[in-house]
Amino acid sequence: MLCSTKIRCQHFILPKFKFKLKSFTSSSTSTSYHHHHHHQWSGLQLWRESPVNPNRAWGPQGPELPLKRDQVEIPSGPGSSLAELGALVLSTSDPLAKSQLSHFAFSKWSSEKLPIGLFDPPSRPARPSKPHLVPPKDIPAPKDSGLPLNAYMLHNLAHVELNAIDLAWDTVVRFSPYQEILGEGFFADFAHVADDESRHFAWCSQRLSELGFSYGDMPAHNLLWRECEKSSGDVAARLAAIPLVQEARGLDAGPRLVKKLIGFGDKRTSSIVARIADEEVAHVAVGVYWFFSVCQKMGRVPCSTFKDLLKEYGIEVKGPFNYSARDEAGLPRHWYDSSSTDEQSKEQLSEVYKRLADIITMENENANSSSHSG
User: Fold this and answer.
1) Which of 28, 130, 198, 312, by CA, is between 20 and 30 Å from 361?
2) Which Pfam families does the protein's record reference (predicted)?
């Protein structure tokens, strides 16, 4: 099981998650930070309440029901909790089976009201023999890949989506021992993200097949899982590295990919990519929501905590940024863009003013109680 080293923080007993008190500047600490100070994606509650999405095929008009049902083979016995189902997905190597099992797991948990449960995640997800994983610098350029540009871009996206299934389920399973602290909603959200990602992979895989190719036809990198491994003992770092950095990069890249695909003359693939990019807003919003929540529990100011974590874990944030999509997801600009310092100054000033107001209120109350007792 996971290391159960803990620290006390106010009235909470929190997993240590590698949060060392000395690694944070005084600007990171705030016992008065409130979650409602932050702009939240307007669609978050609707996304949470939406029924399980069965439209895992891409038809002439967009997402639709598959012609045949998924053939998911579940070993007898497993499946009594969300964490156990997640571990089963992580242990599945075949990409399509992983995608189908991910959907089955979320559907089963949703319909049968299973507990979150506890389970030990595999040290790393099971992978197929292809694609061959290489360093990012060794990924072939489009002209050397043997694939046309649209299939090349689609293969890269399919690889991201397959990794995203594992990243979401690893978050569910790995942090399942801390469900009393994080709350059931944390696990419900990331299981929902995993289901979305499995649907995205299914669309990419279908379209690759229509173009005469399949996932595994060219090498891919293991960068995404390396970022995940860095944060395996730190829930705040996991939220920073994956939804707030990696998934946010998807928001930046989406419109550029769509434009290139339209230029290439592949309207169908461009529609799939556009839909995936649109649905990724929810995943960044979920990360923002839970990052604020974890910071609140730990008495930390989210902005400076996010920046401290990026520095500690060597995570780089690079533009160009899709500001409108990031804003929609509720990701504050001054967290990742050094040119947006005015807003950060306002946030810090509002914190100072709030603390001053609290002190004045307390002093007034003390003065009043003293005069009454006198």
Assistant:
1) 28
2) DUF455
179 and 41 belong to one structural domain = yes
Q: Read off the pLDDT of each residue in 130-158 and give the average, rounded to a whole number.
A: 94
d(CA 176, CA 192): 15
Q: In sequence order, which residues have a C-beta less than 8 Å from that of residue 324 and are 6 or more positions away?
A: none
Q: Tell me: pLDDT of 103 over 90.
A: yes
Specify whether 301 is located in the same domain as 372.
Answer: no
CA pseudo-torsion sign 14, 286, 289, 22 = positive
Tell me whether strands 6-9 and 12-15 are parallel, antiparallel or unpaired: antiparallel
Residue 156: pLDDT band with limits 50, 70, 90: very high
> What is the model's pLDDT at position 22?
32
Total-model pTM: 0.84
pLDDT of residue 228: 73
Residue 1, domain member (yes or no): no
* Closest by Cα among 266, 275, 257 to 208: 266
Domain with 355 in it: 344-374
Confidence of residue 19 (pLDDT cuts 50, 70, 90): very low
Same domain, 172 and 303: yes
Number of helices followed by number of strands (H, E) in the chain: 14, 4
**Radius of gyration for the alpha carbons in the chain, expressed in angstroms and rounded:** 22
Decide: 106 and 195 in contact? Cβ < 8 Å.
yes
Q: Are residues 355 and 304 in the same domain?
A: no
Return the ∠ at Cα 110 (arms to 58 and 240), rounded to 5°: 75
CA 198 and chain centroid, separation = 14
Q: Are 11 and 63 members of one domain? A: yes
Q: Is 300 helix (H, G, I), strand (E, B) or coil?
A: strand
- Count of the separate structural domains present in the chain: 2
Side-chain-facing half-sphere of 176: CA atoms under 13 Å: 22
∠ CA 221-222-223 to the nearest 5 degrees? 95
